Amino acid sequence: MKRKIVKTADGSTTIQLIDWDEQYHSLHGAVNEAYHVFIQTGLHYYLDKNKVGTLSILEIGFGTGLNAFITALEAKKCSIEIQYTGVEAYPVQLNEALAMNYVAQIDGAAECLFSDLHTTSWEERHKISDHLTLLKRKIFFSEIASNNEFDIIYFDAFGARVQPELWTVEIFKKMFNALRSNGILVTYSAKGSVRRAMQEVGFIVERLPGPPGKREMLRATKR
């Protein structure tokens, strides 16, 4: 599939899949979207509700490593330890990942951190920093079989327009099972069919203000 690196509205880059007319991040701002959906509405919200020093995060769609990168930086700021698992069936090529401008956009001193996210081996857990360990898994989302393992899920799959099979009751049942009690799932999507699929498996779902370019997003809680 043809791909190219494009700049988004906040100056940060993403990868565009030309045949699908789909991007790894919002064209309205890759970094802004990541911080809004996954850090502010996900990580910070969870930490406000649960005064913990350690937690476990599952990312559905490791992609360019942007979400893992900003999570590692936030873990240091918050003085917490995070066990991070990123799932990606088709990993981004190393040269593409390292061509992203996130280090320059976010923290120029964190170049080694961003590089380590991509150069460490798959299927093994690595200590990326004092505040984050990383396990990258090259599997399909449908192969996830975790139970009561994660506190937060970053659900960052390609959109339902191009991959509807990733936004089904079956997939969200796996996500529900993977979360611990009071765990949360956050995603940029606000489609009615997605919300109903989440509710069908037992999630309590909130519609929340979305990132730039999107009116709403969803946060789902396992009670």
Automatic annotation (TrEMBL):
The keyword Transferase applies. GO terms for molecular function: oxidoreductase activity, acting on the CH-NH group of donors; tRNA (5-methylaminomethyl-2-thiouridylate)(34)-methyltransferase activity. It comes from the Bacteria. GO terms for biological process: methylation. Transmembrane segments: none annotated. CDD domains: AdoMet_MTases. The keyword NADP does not apply. Keywords: Methyltransferase, Transferase. Residues 145-222 form the MnmC-like methyltransferase domain. NCBIfam families: tRNA_MNMC2. This is tRNA U34 5-methylaminomethyl-2-thiouridine-forming methyltransferase MnmC.
